[in-house]
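Sharing a chain and its predicted structure for anyone who wants a worked example. Both blocks are below, sequence first, tokens second.
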Amino acid sequence: MGKDTNFIGQPILGQLLSFLDKGKIRKASKALKADRYVKRFDSYTHVVVMLFAVFEGYHSIRDTVLGLLSNTVKLQHLGLDYVVRRSTFSDANHRRPHKLFEQVYYQTYDAHKHVLSDSQLSKKDMRRLYIMDSTTITLFKDILKGVGRNPENGKKKGGIKAHTIINSQDSMPCFVRYTESARHDHVLLKDVDLPEHSFICFDKGYVDYAQYDVFTSRKIWYVTRLKDNALYQAKQEFDIPDDVHAGVLKDEEIELFYGENKQQIHRARRIAFWDDENNRVFEFITNNFELSADEIALIYKKRWQIELLFKQLKQNFPLKYFFGDNENAIIIQIWSAMIANLLLTILRSKIKKKWAFSNMMSIVRYQLMSYINVYAFFEDPEKAWRKKIAEEKEREKYRQADPQQSLFPLQGACF
């Protein structure tokens, strides 16, 4: 019998872990003093165990430890030499700073972002497009303050909000901040630090005209929608060239009034755009007066990328069950899901064959500790099967050519 063409000496998880830099993780751990008073369950082991739990989709520490025990003979290929106890695992999630997992994510993203780029935007200016939004993760315990009014029954769930910026070229988060869900989105705008002449796109939840002025002074171009209750005055209307998209209805300069007694003014550009798909008018504002009106509309349309990312994360790494009842443990688990999503995205970018992310995730989850060469399999999943069929045909052909190889070579003969 021929050897499986997809066999390799590392389980799938081990191949995914190869994208991590173990040396940098240890360096970050030392800087954060994350391994102080730790005997065996060091930072790298903690990262590996959390990724094992996230990829497998385990719901508790107990399930994770049992999963590790069931793969005892394979753990050495993950760099593990023992199985952590539940109490040690729980203590690590509570005490080890979540900043470590944050740095693991950013280190891995920075090392591999060159292979993730897949932008359809052709203009050089639009390749510097960043998209900002937030998503809320509901918690079953009131660990962090929830958003909205208190319900009549008094039972209000807590929540954590992930404020995220993605690079439009690779659709991967390059900035993430976690806050209680009750915190308003716009306060995170002051933390945005982008190069000059970058574009950042966000929805109306991030309205902050004072910060818009800061962006303008730093030559960072924003694109967002105009709030319905915005107070503004039209100053100058621009001509709409014939080659601009027919959906552009108006292009004008406006002054937005804000602050105490509406005494402060922010200069912006307002674009009214008719969208045939949604059968409605959108009003965009920006501090960029160079790009055409339809290009501004296209930039805002690209904002949908971040919604697809949130959908991908929630569908493939659902955060419904947490390994701890404290804020640190919850953030560690969220960062672990982000790292797992990044590792699978890197793998996907290195494979020429087009795969849906969810299909790849299903195979990885069910074969996580199998010794399958992920590159060979995902490039040609039927190769091993075709080889097996060819071998069977060759054996059948040989048996027909030499009847003595058959157990009953003289079928139907009389003795």
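Comments welcome. Residues 348 and 356 are 9 Å apart (CA to CA).
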